[in-house]
Specification:
Blueprint (H helix, E strand, L loop, with lengths): L15 H9 L11 H5 L3 E6 L16 H7 L4 E3 L5 E3 L2 E6 L5 E6 L13 H12 L2 H4 L8 E8 L2 E6 L6 H4 L33 E7 L3 E6 L12 E6 L3 H9 L5 E4 L5 H10 L3 E4 L4 E7 L9 H9 L3 H9 L4 E2 L23 H10 L12 E2 L2 E2 L1 E7 L3 H15 L4 E7 L1 H9 L5 E5 L8 H8 L5 H4 L6 H10 L6 H17 L3 E7 L2 E4 L3 E2 L16 E2 L2
Parallel strand pairs: 1-10, 17-18, 17-19
Antiparallel strand pairs: 2-3, 4-5, 5-7, 6-7, 8-9, 9-10, 11-21, 12-21, 13-19, 13-20, 14-20, 15-16, 22-23
Helix pairs in contact: 9-11, 10-12, 16-17
Length: 541
């Protein structure tokens, strides 16, 4: 049951140890955390997370945590390796020739965790509450294109769009907001944007016990339609501090530390070197990029942007700063995403002389006795903005400052809080900015959508491109294209053109890391960047 208080029904008061371990369960300080609960629950798998799991509402966003939402709520379609879209709560689907109608044939053996049936009526009810708050969800492309929804029969649901939008199936695989809440979870007025009564889903896990900012315990959903999890319970301890998470793991209080940035790369490398633990590194989930604002006079010339790309040793930078756990990126999107393998963009290698030559050609020359290039009396001076809480961004910025200084470019680096970084990017108040794409299941179409949208930074970044108008026209055409061959050609042309003109410089491929105890088996990274990693995972007894 979903209970935000810490009250419990203690039926056997004589079991003092169990009582004490329950009281101590939620402590976020590893030195105070009692491991007795783990000892008394052999089938409890324990992880740490830096923040509270949130309200577990499938239809809203922060502070709800994506991995936790995906444990309880499921999609019609799931995103798998290589971008393959597979049936999930929908056994199959049909798409009309004009690309506007999607008919889903739902599984007939699915029940919510409270035992009620999953059917077309509850699918429609979930869509209706989402569409009643369309402004909240308009970032998801297909939402604004829904004309209406229909219940055909108990197990058949139809989605009708106002225009063709090929990413519809892919967007149905995202963790929020298009997953399904059971009837008893809806508030009386049906508006889930204000909250839910209980987090009732069809997923393999049920939220059993919860204390805000301390812990959450998920138990196995015995009504689950699919293969039951091996473990009976998953415990999520809220431990905000990264070093404290590592200490808790070393003491054996955690079975797994998993994700992006939950453990520093130095700590990961140190723990890995002991040989006492198992480690895994995922395939690329995103590309770390530099976005260059071509509306700025110093950066409006393609030769300058290309010189910056030639002017730093990407491979050495990535190897040195990430200890090789990330890898240098040749392309602006990872090539394990759909439609990215046809990218013919030129791969640029480190070449200081080429960088200097390009700057000379662009009219930025180095006056005798000076260290900064000039043109018409103006210095070649630009600013790089980074997230002050992101160690990797800061170190990369410092490295770029030194390397670009060697080719006569003065780089000023400024660290700002993430909210300010995002706002300045949107307001076009930047010269160069760090960014990473959204990954699976959002890209590549979501990445192109933000390039198309004014007021997000990317549209402004490519302002100096001579073919900007044609590029934006092609980007707008992609989601409407029902021909697979034409769609691939468009993606290849767009991605190549954006990269070759230098407004986006790929740096490295971001990866997830996982470190876990030796008795943990069957750990795998989900193909969906936001999904939970607990499918099939178990602890050897």
């Amino acid at each position: 049951m979903f209970n935000k208080s810490n009250s419990r029904n203690i039926l056997i008061t004589a079991i003092i140890i169990l009582f004490l371990s329950t009281i101590l369960l939620g402590c976020t300080n590893a030195s105070d955390t009692d491991s007795a609960l783990n000892d008394d629950n052999d089938n409890m798998f324990t992880i740490a997370w830096p923040r509270d799991i949130g309200e577990m509402n499938p239809h809203v966003y922060n502070p709800s945590q994506l991995f936790a939402q995906s444990m309880v709520y499921e999609p019609l379609v799931s995103y798998q390796e290589g971008g393959e879209l597979k049936p999930h709560l929908a056994e199959s689907w049909d798409i009309s020739e004009d690309g506007k109608e999607y008919t889903f044939h739902l599984r007939q053996d699915v029940k919510f965790s409270d035992g009620t049936s999953f059917n077309a009526e509850i699918v429609k009810k979930n869509f209706d509450t989402i569409l009643n708050n369309v402004d909240l969800h308009s970032w998801l492309g297909f939402i604004t294109k829904i004309d209406r929804t229909e219940v055909i029969d108990e197990h058949t649901f139809k989605l009708i769009l106002t225009e063709p939008y090929y990413p519809t199936i892919q967007e149905l695989a995202v963790v929020r907001p298009v997953r399904f809440l059971g009837e008893a979870g809806f508030p009386e007025d049906g508006d889930t944007s204000k909250g839910v009564v209980e987090p009732i889903g069809t997923g393999p896990w049920v939220l059993e016990e919860y204390k805000t900012d301390e812990y959450a315990i998920f138990k196995r959903n015995e009504n689950y339609w699919g293969e039951l999890p091996k473990e009976e319970k998953i415990q999520v301890k809220v431990i905000p501090d990264a070093e404290t998470r590592v200490l808790a793991f070393e003491k054996g209080e955690l079975d797994l530390i998993y994700g992006e940035g939950l453990i520093s790369l130095d700590a990961f490398k140190q723990l890995e070197s002991t040989g006492d633990y198992e480690t895994s590194i995922s395939e690329p989930v995103a590309t770390r990029q530099l976005v260059i604002n071509s509306t700025k006079e110093q950066l409006s010339d393609e030769r300058v942007r290309q010189a910056l790309h030639y002017g730093f040793n990407k491979e050495a930078l990535v190897e040195g700063i990430t200890s090789g756990y990330e890898e240098k990126a040749d392309y602006i999107l990872p090539t394990n995403l759909p439609y990215t393998k046809g990218n013919d963009a030129k791969v640029i290698d480190y070449d200081v002389e080429k960088a200097k030559s390009l700057l000379d050609e662009a009219g930025w020359t180095l006056p005798k006795g000076k260290t900064v290039r000039e043109k018409d009396g103006q210095p070649l001076e630009v600013e790089l903005m980074y997230d002050s809480a992101e160690t990797i961004q800061k170190t990369m910025a410092e490295t770029l400052q030194a390397e670009w200084g060697a080719i006569g470019v003065k780089l000023n680096i400024v660290g700002v809080e993430l909210t300010e970084q995002i706002q300045r990017f949107k307001d076009n108040k930047f010269d160069i900015n760090f960014f990473s794409n959204y990954g699976a299941p959002y890209d590549p179409h979501t990445f192109l959508n933000i390039v198309l949208s004014e007021g997000f930074g990317f549209n402004e970044a490519i302002s100096a491109y001579p073919n900007k108008a044609e590029l934006l026209k092609q980007i707008a055409e992609v989601p409407k294209t029902t021909d697979e061959v034409k769609r691939q050609q468009l993606y290849s042309s767009i991605l190549t053109s954006i990269q070759d003109q230098g407004a986006i410089i790929p740096i490295s491929y971001v990866k997830k890391t996982a470190i876990y105890q030796k008795d943990v088996t069957n750990f795998t990274f989900p193909a969906n960047r936001d999904e939970h990693p607990f499918t099939g995972i178990s602890i050897e007894q």
